Amino acid sequence: MADRTASPLRDRRFMVLWSAVAAAYLAQWMLPVAAQWFLVGRPGGDVLVPYVQVAMTLPMALLAIPAGVMADRFDRRVLVIGVQVVVLAGEVVLVCLTLGGVLNPWSMLALLALLAGGIVVTFTSLSSMVPDLVETNAIPRASALLTIATNGTRVLGPAIAGFILAATSVGVAFAAAIPATVVLLIVLSVLKIPPPAADRMQERWLSAAVIGVRFVQHSPQALKLISRTFWFTFGVMALLSMLPVLATRLGAGASALGLVLACQGAGAVLGAVTLPRLDAMARQNTVVTIGFVVAGVSLAVAAAAPNTVVLGAATVLAGWAWTTVLATDQAALQMYLPGWVRARGISVMMIATFAGQAFGAAVFGWIGSAFSMVAMLVIAAVWLLTGSLLGVFLPLRDLGERDVSAVPAWVSPEIVVDAEAQARPMQVRVLYDVPFATEGEFVDIMAHIRLIRLRTGALRWQLLADPAVDGRYYEEYMVASWVDHEMQIRMRAIAADHEVEMRLRELVRGDPETSYAFRVDVAGVAAMRH
Asked: In 3-state terms, what secondary structure has residue 374?
């Protein structure tokens, strides 16, 4: 039997994955420092500093869903390799323009946006591999280790970039990101992950994207996690996006700026180290709430910081809260999501993360310019402290034992469906005969069935009672096509949902009767005739 207490890093495949994430993020954290220093050194460039974060995060939010669809459909390793080749080309162009003296703020922001698009595909694909590489009870530790990779490089990246800027130039600092990308391509060449199932490859692009969004839309736990992620990142960016401006106004040079920026990564690594013990002592809901409170306090301290030492200490607290909140949210979502929709679900969380960062940087950057940096930080601190109340009014449920393993337990009925009918919307009707003694529990459990149907592909759902026959109920729901319905039951069914359906069967007499009907486009026929 495998040692379940062992570090996931003992698994060679996870170690390779961890190395790939670390390499990708080392390059990711070096580029913004060089870009922000490039802007700070230009007349009027302070105004554009927050837009470095916008350029780095908004494309991630816009491309997260397509990235999730691609990661669920294709060989993730091959996908990441192809994307990183494009990233490498973009980095080379950025360096050439800088060293040639022709780089301007807008071309730089455009190239940063291209590179950000590469990181969203890379991280979505790599992070969705975690449950395939480690056991379920090791997912929180694996997520914490990935957080160390992403945030440990948040220490190294800014520090390396800051020292390079102090010793050489912006162009050399941009060039320093290239070796990390090359390392990523090398380590990915030895990582072997099974490709997605053939059934998953048959999903249409738009349908696959919509299903991913609908799964999250009808999953209360996922919505709570994603809303917390957006709330947190939106508020904490008041400090993180404006650190270069805050530090330089306190007299920081290039080396000191790199160290202040590295404080966020140091705090994030500290958070990853302390998170396992905190998880053992408190529930996820409590852990996330603590993170919100610490982040709010850190911004309040930064607002009153008299020097870069205090600002750095506040940034360490913000980095600790960053890991505590986001790693907990991500691990909880990874354990909650079934394999067939995992990358798409994670991509929705990435949208929340990056949209929160982009809008937070833009909104609080405007507040800082229009009023003052102190007012900006105080408003953001109040926002984060208010977010801690989500733990009281919208608490997270403890779903650690939820079984999301696949249960393909359904066989298509023996009916002939021609190709044209297969593509038409279809109604599924299930007839239940419910004894009077179990009607109350039946209706309660049908509320869970409703969410299961809507998460796995139903477009509409309703429960009807027959007024002529006591205890006769009709469950009706629409799906986009016969193919979608087959995939709904054959590929998207999981053990936790199966248990709910088995409990439902215990509450009714006999086996439920299922019938199917395809939609007829009467309006289209009438239009052609008239």
From this structure: helix
- pLDDT tens profile 441-490: 999 999 999 999 999 999 999 999 999 999 999 999 999 988 888 888 87
Does the pTM of the predicted model rise above 0.85?
no
Question: Beta strand 472-479 with 426-433: parallel, antiparallel or unpaired?
Answer: antiparallel
pLDDT tens for 6-19 read 577 777 778 877 88
User: What is the DSSP annotation of 254-323?
Assistant: HHHHHHHHHHHHHHHHHHHHHHHHHHHHS-HHHHHHHHHHHHHHHHHHHHT--SHHHHHHHHHHHHHHHH
CB 314 within 8 A of CB 302: yes
Nearest to 347 by CA among 53, 78, 196, 122: 122
Q: In whole angstroms, what is the distance from residue 218 CA to residue 492 CA?
A: 15
CA distance 461 to 448: 12
- Token look-up 């800051």 returns 162
Query: Are the CB atoms for 482 and 421 separated by under 8 Å?
Result: yes
Sign of the alpha-carbon torsion through 408, 413, 418, 420:
negative
Q: Which 3 state secondary structure label does DSSP give 461?
A: strand
Q: Which two tokens stand for residue 423?
A: 């593509």
Distance CA 248, CA 161 (A): 16
